[in-house]
Specification:
There is one protein chain. By secondary structure, this protein is α+β, with helices and mostly antiparallel strands. It folds into 2 domains: about 1-110 and about 250-265, Probable inorganic polyphosphate/atp-NAD kinase, domain 1 (Rossmann fold, 3-Layer(aba) Sandwich), CATH 3.40.50; about 110-245, Sandwich (Tumour Suppressor Smad4), CATH 2.60.200. It has 6 helices and 17 strands. The strands form 4 sheets. A 6-stranded antiparallel beta sheet has the order 7-6-17-14-9-10. Strands 13-12-11-8-15-16 form a 6-stranded antiparallel beta sheet, with no helix packed on it. Strands 3-4-5 form a 3-stranded parallel beta sheet, with helices on one face. Strand 15 and strand 16 (about 230-235) form a beta hairpin. The longest helix is centred in the N-terminal third of the chain and has 13 residues, at about 1-15. It is globular, with a radius of gyration of 20 Å. The model has no long low-confidence stretch (mean pLDDT about 95).
Length: about 280
Amino acid sequence: MLAHLQDLAKLLKSLDCEVYIEAGTASHLGLKDFQSKQVSEFSGSIDLTVVLGGDGTMLAIGRQLAGSNVPLVGINMGRLGYMTDIPIQDVGTVLPKIIAGDYEADTRTLLDAVVIRDQKEINRALALNDVVVNRSGISGMVGLSVSVNGSFMYNQRSDGLIVSTPTGSTAYALSAGGPILHPRVAGFLLVPIAPHSLSNRPIVLPEDVTISIEVVDGHEVIVNFDMQSLTKLQSGDTIEVSQSTKTISLLHPRAHSDYKTLREKLHWNEYPSTF
């Protein structure tokens, strides 16, 4: 990672860019050859954020920069790379074109989640992929009551429930049997995790609704935000999820194709070895 980061910084310097390393990264890696900034200082002073890592890294920085109007470019060093879509070996040819203005922009929406206990807000968080209410690995099923815009939808016993953005539709929601949504679809997914009743199916909801998920019963129930932060829940707690007013902008190489990304990451271009 250190060598790749140093090479990336040198490349950007050679393109006449003023380079700053995110302060936590610079401190962790002992980088002292470049200036550094806290993420909170990016807005208004940084024109472009280049993310080196995998989609998890992009999720973390994306939430912090949401609404800042600072676009992001993802350099993939992870396993999948739906958002960090530039392979590390292609940086030298692709990144200079993006810096020169030859790119395609892609706006992604986020979820705003509020945890309410005894009519008081105890936590609020953003999610770029998903908000997941689920049980711990050793507890039984959780009972949930779900309403949409104040209208009762269903009661559910399951291992949990996923509220996913189109971005997150290729993450946990896909593993739980949800459909893939194109990033430009104006809505989000509600996907049960191993529901007790097979009639509880994934559903695509419009972007302007508020989903209320009440924990009716269950032990060791938690709500995760992009699987990177969590809040422990109690019976009677409610999680209200709606589309955030904040967005992020991802920059891709010219002629970027979401279908090509899916084809390569999900191996849709491979025929089975036997028929």
